[in-house]
Specification:
mainly alpha
């Protein structure tokens, strides 16, 4: 088994700030993976049995599990503008990135 020595492993989750910092560390690489005007998260070519479009939406939507509590707690993520723009693009029937 491969051993990992990641900065996030050194954090002590004792305060709300500690938890927010760890979440921001997890979200950081996702910024580069937001595609299609922010309406999808591309994490690879593997998807259970979904189409590529559905896999992009699933990746995008999973970020909400962390981003929403982060924002409600008064913190921000440097890619939240792009992520929010993805919501607009994904729900606009005239957009080429429409999720429907």
């Amino acid at each position: 088994m491969k051993a990992y020595d990641l900065p996030i492993q050194k954090l002590h989750l004792e305060t709300r700030d500690d938890l927010a910092k760890s979440l921001l560390m997890l979200l950081s690489p996702c910024k580069k993976a937001l595609v299609r005007e922010g309406s999808g998260l591309f994490v690879g070519n593997e998807a259970a049995h979904y189409s590529a479009q559905v896999a992009l939406l699933e990746g995008w939507s999973r970020l909400l599990w962390g981003v929403v509590p982060l924002r409600k707690g008064g913190y921000s993520w440097d890619a939240e503008t792009l992520h929010t723009h993805g919501l607009i693009e994904g729900t606009d029937k005239e957009s080429p990135y429409y999720w429907g």
